[in-house]
Design a protein that fits this description.
Elements lengths: L1 H16 L7 H11 L11 E2 L2 E4 L2 E5 L4 E7 L8 E5 L7 H6 L5 E6 L6 H13 L1 E2 L3 E5 L2 H19 L5 H11 L3 E4 L15 E5 L7 H6 L2 E7 L17 H21 L6 E7 L7 H8 L3 H4 L4 E6 L5
Parallel strand pairs: 3-7, 4-5, 5-6, 6-8, 11-12, 11-13
Antiparallel strand pairs: 1-8, 2-3, 4-9, 10-12
Length: about 325
């Protein structure tokens, strides 16, 4: 009662100062009273965009905590938390949204992602950039989609409303911010460099011959990624990213091991089976391997071809 009384009294003072204005001044005494009404809370599981260090530079989302009003992504996102559904993402839409300088971004993903090309484009964009705001992703559910629809409807109403006075617009803006987004966690510490480990085995087709002969044969590399590096830890795509490629590589290794043991002398090539990390990170592990080849492979341009076993699109 005390707080309400003091708040109301403060508004009356403002009213007296603006008593020469038209009826919009009456809105001012209501703004704080309506804005302080409390809605029931909705708890939603979110996963923060990964934060990591690559080449001595921080990447990903650099902040974690949120406590701002939510807004539909097409509206005025300045100093607010923008909600963006994956199905509404178009060319440069994320970049355009970030140019509005929101205080945070929540991306809503469908349970089944059908537009895989857009998904890969989105992931690569977030991997390569550094963001000074909290960015979260979440799978759609009924409460979250209801919030998204409410924000969308209110943004449409504000956009289609006829020209109004400053005070009317201010009142409608305050009233439209029904959802206060709050994530209270410790801010992340400075990220440590990614630890990338490559695993490989050179299967020689001439094991019964001299070392000089073995080193002279050209090499074909068969590679696959062995881990999942997604926007957030909970957003991997399971065995098909890239478990299927990993299994195929191991089966090929078993088959060629038997074949070379029996008929290896007839082959003109050696085979190198390579498992690399971070396929989603623009095949960073593969790049590191090729830039720092073992001495036995770097001589005489032994590598002639490389086959990557990737999951189907």
């Amino acid at each position: 009662i005390n707080a309400e009384y003091m708040g109301f009294k403060a508004q009356l003072i403002v009213m007296g100062y603006l008593d020469t204005l038209l009826k919009e001044s009456a809105w001012l005494c209501l703004v704080l009273l309506f804005a302080t009404s409390v809605h029931a809370g909705v708890e939603i599981n979110l996963a923060r965009l990964l934060q990591y260090n690559k080449d001595a530079q921080d990447h990903g989302s650099q902040l974690a905590s949120l406590n701002f009003a939510g807004v539909y992504f097409a509206g005025d996102a300045l100093r607010k938390i923008a909600f963006l559904h994956f199905d509404d993402i178009g060319d440069n839409s994320v970049m355009n949204l970030l140019h509005k300088k929101p205080n945070g971004l929540i991306i809503i993903l469908p349970r089944v992602i059908s537009e895989m090309a857009m998904w890969h484009t989105l992931q690569k964009f977030f991997y390569d950039e550094t963001f000074p705001i909290p960015i979260y992703v979440a799978f759609e559910n009924e409460p979250l989609m209801q919030i998204y629809k409410d924000l969308q409807v209110k943004e449409t109403q504000l956009a289609e409303a006829p020209t109004k006075s400053f005070f009317s617009k201010m009142f409608e803006t305050v009233m439209a911010e029904d959802y206060q987004v709050s994530v209270s966690i410790d801010e992340p510490k400075s990220s440590s460099p990614l630890q990338l480990e490559n695993f490989y085995y050179l299967l020689s087709s001439s094991q019964d011959q001299k070392e000089e002969r073995k080193a002279s044969k050209p090499v074909i590399i068969i590679s696959a990624t062995y881990d999942v590096f997604s926007l957030a830890p909970d957003l991997s795509h399971g065995v098909n990213s890239n478990g299927s490629g990993l299994i195929a590589l191991l089966e090929l290794f078993k088959a060629y091991q038997k074949l070379f043991a029996a008929y290896g002398s007839f082959s003109k090539y050696d085979l190198l089976f390579l498992l690399t990390p971070t396929g989603s990170l623009n095949y960073r592990g593969t790049e590191l391997f090729l830039n720092d080849l073992p001495e036995s492979l770097s001589q005489k341009n032994r590598i002639r071809f490389m086959l990557g076993l990737l999951r189907s699109k």
